[in-house]
Design goal:
Blueprint lengths: L17 H14 L4 E7 L8 E3 L3 H9 L7 H8 L4 E2 H6 L5 H12 L4 E9 L2 E9 L3 H10 L1 H18 L12 H11 L4 H8 L3 H15 L4 H10 L4
Antiparallel strand pairs: 1-2, 1-5, 3-4, 4-5
Length: 236
């Protein structure tokens, strides 16, 4: 197995194009001893998903088109826990639903068996980095145990770079108008409609209209939920 410390972290930064960052991530994952990586943001908006991956196409294509991510126990774990989990352990406790069984069968058919899922977090939202290992289960578990902290750090490095400089590749982007975005920023600060109307120099009725449009586009039940959804989706 390659030692992660023998391959210093590559330089990331805002000057790098997404294509360059993606190439660097795929290369770094290979140097770490893994065959592939699957990175996505975790959003409370579940009708779609954005991801970056070099996993086999026969897995990624149906995973997205059949919306298997709605039933993915790995994503469910990482949305509420800070600890990494293997796909095997995650599926083992969640194979009761038909959809989860189909997803598990899909991963095995595509040769995806040994994966480590690492929950990741930034001020833009949460996500998960899945690392695919192509060897035996014993070698996979040994590598995870020996390089546990380093794999967490590497995953956070990837997610942090993407979240900061290329959030549109991980999170669903809401098409808010300039005025709606301005209003949302005031909502985040907890301001009342009256306060917002004075700062935006519009009527209270116009603010109510803007708030209503924001809630509709974010599919939120109220202002608090709208702020949570916007934060988790990288819109803030």
């Amino acid at each position: 197995m390659n030692n992660l410390q023998s391959h210093p972290y590559m330089e990331f930064g805002s000057s790098n194009s997404f294509e360059k960052v993606e190439e660097m991530i795929f290369t770094r994952v290979g140097q770490a001893g893994f065959a592939g990586v699957f990175i996505t943001g975790i959003s409370s908006i579940t009708h779609d998903i954005k991801l970056i991956s070099n996993f086999p196409g026969e897995f990624i294509s149906p995973y997205c088109s059949n919306k298997y991510f709605l039933h993915d126990p790995v994503l469910q774990h990482c949305s509420s826990h800070h600890s990494p989990v293997t796909w095997h352990d995650s599926y083992r406790v969640a194979l009761k639903s038909k959809e989860t069984r189909l997803l598990h069968q899909l991963s095995l058919a595509a040769g995806i068996e040994h994966c480590l899922a690492v929950p990741t977090f930034t001020n833009r939202g949460a996500g998960v980095v899945n690392l695919l290992f192509s060897g035996t289960k014993e070698d996979f578990l040994r590598l995870c145990a020996e390089k546990y902290a380093e794999l967490i750090g590497l995953s956070q490095l990837f997610f942090g770079e993407l979240s900061k400089n290329h959030p549109e590749k991980l999170f669903m982007q809401f098409k808010l108008t300039t005025r709606e975005e301005e209003c949302l920023q005031f909502i985040v600060k907890g301001l009342s409609n009256l306060e917002i109307s004075r700062l935006m120099n519009v009527s209270r009725d116009r603010v109510k209209e803007l708030v209503s449009l924001i809630l509709k586009k974010l599919e939120a039940a109220n202002r608090t939920e709208a702020v949570m959804i916007a934060a988790k989706s990288g819109a803030l």
